[in-house]
């Protein structure tokens, strides 16, 4: 296990008494379900299944994943917000949860008030993926191609207003490109369409794109972050590729219904922290280009508030509206 993966998990000795008390909390009887508000195949789904497997072994009862995709992740989030606050229902989501409040004027839940944040579990750089036949071997060539043919190049995403959609809108804005958006039901479907050649490009988490770049079915033209990703060292950063203003990072986190007792939230947080230290999970995350991140509920709550504010600004600047 790499030291950099362990640091976020072990760097706060002051948390140990709280975690010990959390471990003493009784676990509610019954099957625990982790709602993933997207179709199977994305890293959100994969990480949920890895987490469920570890938690099942730790607590000695079944932890299952339930995919409830649709409406940019809001259907699954609604189901989680309305679930009984008994610790048996969790939501595992990503950036899209913080985006939805800016896209849906009348959500059936309040993103900051109706779910209790438990912990982040992972982070990953974003990566720009293009089909090999496009002829753009670097980002400068792609930008030049897009500027020469405004609106001709297409990009796929996990749906109108999804994190993959807005990530590309942000890149198009800073690079001065005008692109054609083609939404799909999930980022995995969008990536498959880029591989097939039916659309030209997509932005996804490194975790979702790493295997395709390694296999040569897609080209990676840039990754976010200050340095190249260890999982794909041949792909330059956006800074190296000529777009230093682009630095969108993906994250994943777990939440529970708002009225879930504090003791249960702390127990959930402690169990997640233990799961994130499991060598099998750490190795699987690293292979996918993601880094485990364990945060306190308070840290995750503050992170979510910042993300909601950030994406509100991006949505307004790009003029993105749901169709």
UniProtKB/TrEMBL annotation:
Q: Which UniProt keywords apply?
A: Signal
UniProt signal peptide: 1-24
- UniProt xrefs under InterPro entries: BUG
Identify the domain of life: Bacteria
The similarity annotation says:
Belongs to the UPF0065 (bug) family.
What is the name of the protein in this document?
Answer: Tripartite tricarboxylate transporter substrate binding protein
